[in-house]
Amino acid sequence: MSEAVAHDDHAHGPEKGLMRWVYTTNHKDIGTLYLLFSLTMFMLGGAMAMVIRAELFQPGMQLIDPHFFNQMTTMHALIMVFGAVMPAFVGLANWLIPMMIGAPDMALPRMNNWSFWILPFAFTLMVVTLFMEGGAPAAGWTMYAPLVLQTGDAFPFLIFSIHLLGISSVMGAINIIATIMNMRAPGMTLMKMPLFVWTWFITAYLLIAVMPVFAGAVTMLLTDKFFGTSFFSAAGGGDPVLYQHIFWFFGHPEVYIMILPAFGIVSAIIPTFARKPLFGYSSMVYATASIAFLSFIVWAHHMFTVGMPLAGQLFFMYATMMIAVPTGVKVFNWVSTMWKGSMTFETPMLFALAFVILFTIGGFSGLMLAITPADFQYHDTYFVVAHFHYVLVTGAVYSIIAAAYYWMPKWTGHMYNETAGKIHFWWSTISVNVLFFPQHFLGLAGMPRRIPDYSVQFADWNMVSSIGGFAFGLAQVYFCWIVYKTIKGGEKATDRVWEGATGLEFENLPSPAPYHSFTMAPEIK
Amino acid sequence: MESFESGKIERRSHKKLVAMLVAMVFFMSGFSFALVPLYEVFCEITGLNGKTADGPVAVEEKIDMNRTVKVQFIANMNSINGAWKFTPDVFEMEVHPGSLEETAFHAENTTDLNRVAQAVPSVVPGQAALYFHKTECFCFNEQSFEPQESKSMPLRFMVDPELPEKIETIALSYTFFELDRVAAQ
Lengths: 525, 185
Prior knowledge:
The structure holds 2 protein chains of 2 kinds.
Chain A: H1 3-9, H2 19-23, H3 27-55, H4 66-101, H5 109-128, H6 154-182, H7 195-226, H8 240-257, H9 260-274, H10 281-294, H11 310-322, H12 324-338, H13 347-370, H14 372-378, H15 382-412, H16 418-444, H17 459-488, H18 504-507
Helix pairs in contact in A: 3-4, 3-5, 3-17, 4-6, 4-15, 5-6, 6-7, 7-8, 7-9, 7-10, 9-12, 9-13, 9-15, 10-12, 13-15, 13-16, 15-16, 16-17
Chain B: H1 15-46, E1 69-77, E2 84-88, E3 92-95, E4 100-109, E5 115-124, E6 132-137, E7 143-145, E8 150-159, E9 169-178, H2 180-183
Parallel strand pairs in B: 1-9
Antiparallel strand pairs in B: 1-3, 2-4, 4-8, 5-7, 5-9, 6-8
């Protein structure tokens, strides 16, 4: 096919061949790219987690040397945070926001293409460091100065890949805000928007507020290392604790960037399978906004042990505990939505329910960590590891998997295999608890995080945890197979997909959603 | 194609909104660098991080004989490369608030190279930093050492009589940082 013909074809469907994906400005194509990229990174980061769990299977040094172990923990975190969870949410935003608000596409389609295509380059920069002299970054994903300044040749690669990731996220965020502000169909008022759109709207503002701060912090690391500045070097009048303050000023909003869209997903799925409208819609919106606001004034709870004055410790402790209030509003709203509903338990609902229960467990361990005197014991132990894996794996990742099952029939036009989905759910949910629950016990017993070897009294629970880890990893390979089969074929999905589904994407569009949707604005009831 | 009723989507300009959002990005980038001086100022005003003044402070002796405070001295090195010896002459003193006191730290360059070091002070508890005045300190300047040179470096200080009652012990720690950029020459 000549190029001219291919171009004419554009109005009716996608271009043919590989270049379609490179040149595309279509929100559905870009959403697909983001989601597949995220899945690839999830498997890569997961492979590193398997290396970590294999080394920790038994006490003593078994498979890898400590320096490589540190590289694995650092890269696992960076890849999962910036490569798996964040791009997955941006991919979902790309696919869903225009369809949910009745827009034909994202507001800035060319920038959208660019935000995605920066990512593979950023991660190439980051991942090639594994093959460098001195290895990949090994100072933890938090990159605390002065330790991170000992990184070898990988250091500038790390910094520049973070700059690129920041640019990509910020462009994505600007695009999402512009789409939501300017592209809503007539009649789609802000308080009629689906909660997924609302949570992303707030998340996008968080991204714009904190990604530049993170970029600034790593730039200071870069100039400290190569240009003789002393932002974080005490010898030159700087202060290493300053790095921790700046990092966590970014870092705490960042963890909400990874969970707010999850709240939106669960708020879409639970009403569908409970066959009742979401309970307390406006309180959900205000709760999301309060969580976003509070995220800016709690950062120092990550660093209670640096030697803070009592007044500071008390302020950050109380502010942190306050977050439990809006989060509690959300959890009770989800439960109230299900109350007296006629519920069914298809795979997306199972993952959403597991999210509500397991994320709440993660929230409770977070409250324990918020108590300053208790945190002095828990700090840097496996209790912290258990906490943030409950909120990130059974929280963020579970919501992403739920979203994939829930909207995949709309995207591909094919139903996934329900039996396979249920097997995946139970396999994942049992193994993820075997994996992470014992880590609470290890942490309370005093096992420090980020170590390749440990005292023998920790041996049993580590072995249990590793077995859970291998099983959970394998379950996600199975998930990849389910996704592949669903894309390739399967039972034809109905336009509504789910009996109780609501929203423009289910009520006004066929399955699969056409390449160009809502070129004429839909009527909003 | 599907048919959807109602009119065309009205085209609103993205330019203004995007310009505003980009301005926010630049503002927040600036803010991240502004955090550095803000942090300094905050710590200076509140004395939260145990930093004492960078230069000599003028003080007036007004001895409070009714009260004694224990002052402890600690010497640390940032790198363990065997190139330095650094110790306080005394590890502990009992002082009256308001009286000018003197002690010294001993440092030795054990190598055959010219070396330069900077001592960085820290006071615990942090709140005491505001009440710990130094009229002379080796930490105010970089200290250069000839090969194998050893020095006794004086420190004159006064504990402010206004020191809160509940503070009975003050630990003053110095960390010796080798300025390798200078020493390399």
